[in-house]
Design brief:
Layout (H helix, E strand, L loop, with lengths): L8 E2 L4 E7 L4 H17 L4 E7 L4 H6 L7 E6 L4 E4 L5 H8 L2 E2 L2
Parallel strand pairs: 2-3
Antiparallel strand pairs: 1-6, 2-4, 4-5
Protein name: Circadian clock KaiB family protein
InterPro entries: KaiB-like, KaiB_domain, Thioredoxin-like_sf
Pfam family, one: KaiB
Length: 103
């Protein structure tokens, strides 16, 4: 039986994340809220989140081949993963980022 992630969890290494957003759109704002809430609740300080507006930094978005917004890139720990959307499916995001319960 799965236990809920209601306590501080951990990852093997500090998570290095970049969230690409399209200005202040509602989907972008929802993605920012969701990832900040999830990381703040589960990881405390075991993450580094950079939020990048593709309108202000189109060259960075092009460098990372960002086509959809919002897009979250997990750079570390490997393997690199890209999640697209508002990140509202909490369990899917937790699994994709490799977050595990402290037990």
């Amino acid at each position: 039986m799965k236990k809920p992630y209601n306590e501080v969890s951990h990852v093997k290494e500090k998570l290095i994340l970049q969230l690409y957003v399209s200005g202040m759109s509602s989907k972008s704002m929802q993605a920012i809220k969701n990832i900040k809430l999830l990381c703040g609740e589960l990881l405390e300080s075991d993450f580094n989140l950079e939020i990048i507006d593709i309108y202000k930094n189109p060259e960075l978005a092009a460098k990372h081949h960002i086509v959809f917004s919002p897009s979250l890139i997990k750079h570390q720990p490997l393997p690199k993963k890209i999640l697209i959307g508002t990140l509202s499916d909490r369990e899917m995001v937790i699994k994709a980022l490799g977050i595990t319960s402290k037990e």
